[in-house]
Amino acid sequence: MNAAKADRIPEDEASLQLNDHGELRHLLTLEGLDMPLLVDLLDDAEGFLTPEDNLPARSDALAGRTVANLFFEPSTRTRASFDLAAKRLGADVLNLDVNTSSRKKGESILDTIYTLEAMRCDIMVVRDASVGVPAYIARHVKDHVSILNAGESDVSHPTQGLLDLLTIRRHKGSFADLTVAIVGDIRHSRVARSAAFGLQTLGVGALRLISPAAMAPDADDMPFANIIDNLDDGLADADVIMALRIQRERIPNLDGIPGPDEYFASYGVSRNRMRLAKPDAIVMHPGPMNRGVEIEGALADSAQSVITEQVANGVAVRMAVLERVAKSLERR
Amino acid sequence: MNAAKADRIPEDEASLQLNDHGELRHLLTLEGLDMPLLVDLLDDAEGFLTPEDNLPARSDALAGRTVANLFFEPSTRTRASFDLAAKRLGADVLNLDVNTSSRKKGESILDTIYTLEAMRCDIMVVRDASVGVPAYIARHVKDHVSILNAGESDVSHPTQGLLDLLTIRRHKGSFADLTVAIVGDIRHSRVARSAAFGLQTLGVGALRLISPAAMAPDADDMPFANIIDNLDDGLADADVIMALRIQRERIPNLDGIPGPDEYFASYGVSRNRMRLAKPDAIVMHPGPMNRGVEIEGALADSAQSVITEQVANGVAVRMAVLERVAKSLERR
Amino acid sequence: MNAAKADRIPEDEASLQLNDHGELRHLLTLEGLDMPLLVDLLDDAEGFLTPEDNLPARSDALAGRTVANLFFEPSTRTRASFDLAAKRLGADVLNLDVNTSSRKKGESILDTIYTLEAMRCDIMVVRDASVGVPAYIARHVKDHVSILNAGESDVSHPTQGLLDLLTIRRHKGSFADLTVAIVGDIRHSRVARSAAFGLQTLGVGALRLISPAAMAPDADDMPFANIIDNLDDGLADADVIMALRIQRERIPNLDGIPGPDEYFASYGVSRNRMRLAKPDAIVMHPGPMNRGVEIEGALADSAQSVITEQVANGVAVRMAVLERVAKSLERR
């Protein structure tokens, strides 16, 4: 898996994401996207947030367009978030459960894409367990099609990264003085990687990646971050703490992986341990949570938790991305 | 299961259903809802019925709102009925197949709900195999969210109860002089219970619950009904006969349960046996039917059968409920 | 299977498809539909084609109507194509995954249909593995309901046939001088049969059905076609070549069926072999493709290939059929 990570050419993916006018056309990874573009996306997303007892924001920016959700891995929350974001922008949405149909008949992924393209699915939201699939698809689609990465193996989940950035910005303002601590299975987490690259671009003060050795990233994967194996050290004076689920489905050999209780004792983020962080620190989690494993349930429900805000921000961020790539397709 | 039934506190659930203005906000059970409210809902539903060769009724009462169908048990007809009811009121609809996604990752049901709430799913339609889940959820959601019970273990299926009431009222007018006979697996049927409590509230003349001993309800569960084990006795001079499917999936030990032929011989509702009922008696079934087991196929297709009317009334009743809870959310 | 084919009464199905005004009400099979009607459908479909970088065509011809996709066999492309066609005409769409719900509870197919009919699904798109199911359903629905066959065992797939006709017409103009060669598992292919009957009605010059003996049709099934077992002979001077997938799921005994390499050597359509056909011959495939088995990948991606055009034409043809049957329901 890390071999595959190393095989990627992020510069190439980054340039693939912009059209000839420098506008975002595909969203494959946050790596290589510059600060002004990220800030623009966060600003756009803010515009889609409304008070929680109002009706959600709507527009007709995608009227007449078709968004296809093409999930080769199961998903509830990300699929639902893209589905609602697209519908609230007026798009038609096609949800494909790809595990149970054409793939059984032996069709290649590109032929599935060409089929959707011919049906005029202008925007395809793709989740896949293999590294490089969204970029591979983006290299092959026609000019009127945009590819959005909704989760790519253990390497990239850019809309999750954006919603994490938006959540932090809304609570903390600027990034320059912040210490952000990501705790858990960093090695197998696309969430951690996308947040990390986005934070780096926005000039985060310090980024700490905290995990047992078996879940630590390769030293050269995110060289701008501090790799730490002691949770107490990692939490000290942090402003933002993000807890991660152990990605058991992506770990080839689970022998060295601690059980839930053992893990919680060493790496569980709890109210007690949060005393080491800044008093106004916020706690994040991408979901789904395993309460009592990577995060104490009472902390997840506490005033420090911004976990449901992350979900709300996720819809707003996806609306912002959808609107922006749709505009780039028009400008083409 | 009956232990669990006994553990419920219906008074508490009933009061939970109304907002501070006395309006219906959640629909969890028909127990405790008063006659004027039930009559209002049936009247509203009548307004959504159109001649069957016209286009179905539509409105924009739910425009801008999102309805989430959250089915933890498989369903075709109830899910489809809520889906169409919501779409015909202008809502966005999110259908979640919960068996195959987040639950595998160990997420708690409340965290799934909090996620949907953050995505601005204002109305959640919930089906679950465990007693108390809809009320449990209703106690935890925010003020801008409404919970509709679409089937709760063996205890409650309130929109089914309402559609049964509407079907009876359209054929028989008032309830005071009616004898209603429900036949079959009463013990494991949420359909029977919801119809029974609704009929009791509307002042039904007599309610008979007819089944073999192994499928009879506890004597104190519906004390207003007559428990009868002989089908001929139960059908005598009845105005309304409702046949029920054996809920094999909810019966822990199937040893004492008769096979199809044996069951039909003793408890199958047939044209022949219908001669014991009033000449203008109607025959109902909540579907899906097992023809030749609990009901004779030719009877289901006869002029006495109102089974497809029940389905049509189901969409109308769900539109009425959706419209009403949406209004209560606005009034909040 | 061929016994079942022989049991059908196509004349009867053909007459069932038209209402009293001679308008298309159900689409069950292309057999028996006359040339003017097929030409009208192709003309209508042309009107729904737009340049591929424009937004897709839309109308409100189905506003207020509900289309139910009732697929008893899994499908991605045909289901998606009908879904998008219906949505782009303004319909509400209900997608039912019938394998996982009511059928488990023992409901008959007609009771499922009656349920959807009562919910006001005016147009039902049905795919089923058994011969005769669409016609059987069409004989039982009410006057306000239309049935569209989306794939029926190995006998009929009429919208696929129409999209094949449209694709050929757009490239070749008239049919009278054309030689069309269909290559592969003719015996088990509903695609081949529907294309063959449609081509025959439109007066195709010559139709060749090319396959190994085990996959050849019965001699009397399509008596107007030439059955050929040598691929080179079949391709000679052909204008149109359609390659087919081996329908392994429909072949009772796979013992005599060649492996992929052996099959490709004898019956794979390749660039090399295409030299036997006319220089401007086009290559078609209904998808999903098995590259390197029935078709060479490089040929599928070549300028001669019209495979993705078939997909685009599929949406247009389905829009044309939906619009036309909806009009017939109004006229009733």
Task: List descriptors.
Rossmann fold, alpha/beta, 332 residues, 2 domains, homotrimer, four-stranded parallel sheet, 9 strands, five-stranded parallel sheet
Describe what this molecule looks like in 3D.
Three copies of one chain form a homotrimer. The longest helix of chain A has 25 residues, at 307-331. Chain A has helices spanning 2-7, 10-16, 35-47, 77-88, 109-118, 133-140, 158-172, 190-201, 231-235, 260-267, 271-274, 297-300, 307-331, and strands spanning 66-71, 92-97, 123-128, 146-152, 179-183, 206-210, 226-228, 240-243, 282-284. Helix content of chain A is 39%, strand content 14%. Chain A has 13 helices and nine strands. With 332 residues, chain A is α/β, with parallel strands linked by helices. A five-stranded parallel beta sheet of chain A has the order 7-6-5-8-9.
